[in-house]
């Protein structure tokens, strides 16, 4: 066995071990391999091989990220930031975000948890709205959810 083949085998094994610990995007895998001292060209070649063999799939990973963060009550903006941060291509975002459940229930649950059935004053309402904005919800959805909350009181 030639030296180059042993190196390729070692980097493939390392990449598979990383993927065995947690799912990641193609870019995350390349960055991790390079961070561990591998040559970038070798990391790219291994990542491409793993994509070809279907061990690595950014589309499936994007859907997994969306399900995970939507389940935690995060909004569309926060999900797109997370997809971008993890190196998922924008071409895969739309398909993954279509899997996102409606956010109304998560918004309503968050507001009820924070306000505990009490009529909020302006400061409390702003605090909750700001928290929801940080979670990735747009102002229209937030104001509609706050209206629903007040109507239910």
Compact overview of the structure:
This protein has 153 residues and is mainly α. 75% of the residues lie in helices and 0% in strands.
Name a few traits of the molecule.
Arc Repressor Mutant, subunit A, 153 residues, single chain, mainly alpha, 3 domains
Question: How is this structure best described in words?
Answer:
- The chain is mostly helical and 153 residues long.
- The chain folds into three domains: 3-56, Arc Repressor Mutant, subunit A (Orthogonal Bundle), CATH 1.10.10; 59-98, Arc Repressor Mutant, subunit A, CATH 1.10.10; 104-152.
- The chain is 75% helix and 0% strand.
- The protein has nine helices and no strands.
- The chain has helices at 3-21, 26-35, 40-52, 58-71, 76-85, 90-98, 104-115, 122-134, 139-152.
- The N and C termini lie far apart (75 Å).
Which helices and strands, and how do they pair?
Blueprint: H1 3-21, H2 26-35, H3 40-52, H4 58-71, H5 76-85, H6 90-98, H7 104-115, H8 122-134, H9 139-152
What is the number of strand segments? 0
Under the CATH scheme, which architecture of the largest domain would be assigned? Orthogonal Bundle
Order of helices and strands: HHHHHHHHH
Report the C-alpha radius of gyration, rounded: 21 Å
Structural domain count:
3
Helix content: over 70%
Low-confidence runs of at least 5 consecutive residues: none
Distance between the termini: 75 Å
Examine the coordinates and then state which fold CATH places here, giving the name of the CATH topology of the largest domain.
Arc Repressor Mutant, subunit A
Shape: elongated
Strand content: under 5%
For the biggest sheet, the summary is: none
* CATH first level of the largest domain: Mainly Alpha
The averaged pLDDT comes out at 90
Structural class, please?
A: mainly alpha
Query: If helices are DSSP runs of H or I spanning 4 or more residues, what is the number of helices?
Result: 9
